[in-house]
Amino acid sequence: MIQNKQNRLEQIKADIISKNICPNLAKTAKQLVFGDGNPSADIVFIGEAPGKNEDEQGKPFVGAAGKFLNEMLASVGLNRDDVYITNIVKYRPPNNRDPLPEEKQNFLPFLRAQLEVIKPKIVVTLGRHSLECLIPGLQISQVHGHPKRYKGLIILPLFHPAAALYNGGLRQTLMDDFAAIPTILNQIEQEN
Predict the structure, then answer these.
(1) What are residue 84's phi and psi, to 5 degrees?
(2) How far apart are CA 160 and CA 187, in angstroms?
(3) Under a CB-based contact definition with an 8 Å cutoff, are residues 163 and 137 in contact?
(4) What is the value of pTM for the model shown?
(5) pLDDT above 80: residue 1
(6) How far, CA to CA in Å, does 109 sit from each of 52, 71, 116, 118, 141?
(7) Structure confidence at residue 90 (pLDDT)
(8) Gap between the Cα atoms of 180 and 146, Å rounded
């Protein structure tokens, strides 16, 4: 089962490359940063785009924000092997600029395909870009920490770990919101 899912994820990755998605981004990036973790995970975390460390290592969330994400995972008894981590945009934007709307739109079908394969119980959006892609029109500052049902998914919007690194006041908010993940997961399992 897991191997089958992994093969399907590899096919999605191959499709991004063969269909030449966002060639301008691909040209300036070292490599495609597709996703990492358990293909049968209950929880998928979605960031916005790879940064410098991610581009070099080929894995999402391996820089400072990734270290903070690992800390938060440990705080709820999880590690990276238990979850799946990806970004909307799969190539690093030049100079870590925000992904452009058309870049996010071009990658969205592939992100949706990843979610179809993994079938997580919770999708955790990290930051405003991934929230906006999956549930347009919501403000992260108003909905963070409150799960939403949308198009068959349960989405938990959280601030991006990088935001907490730049704004110390957000760190505790993010930790508190993150701490609710096991409770939300339990509620979903009881409903099913």
Answers:
(1) -125, 135
(2) 24
(3) no
(4) 0.96
(5) no
(6) 24, 30, 10, 14, 26
(7) 98
(8) 9
- In this structure, what token pair is assigned to residue 114? 């990843």
Which tokens in the block code for residue 44? 């998928």
Report pLDDT digits (tens) over 92-118: 999 989 999 999 999 999 999 999 999
Query: The domain 2-191 is classified under which CATH number: 3.40.50.2020, 3.40.50.720, 3.40.470.10, 2.60.120.1060?
Result: 3.40.470.10
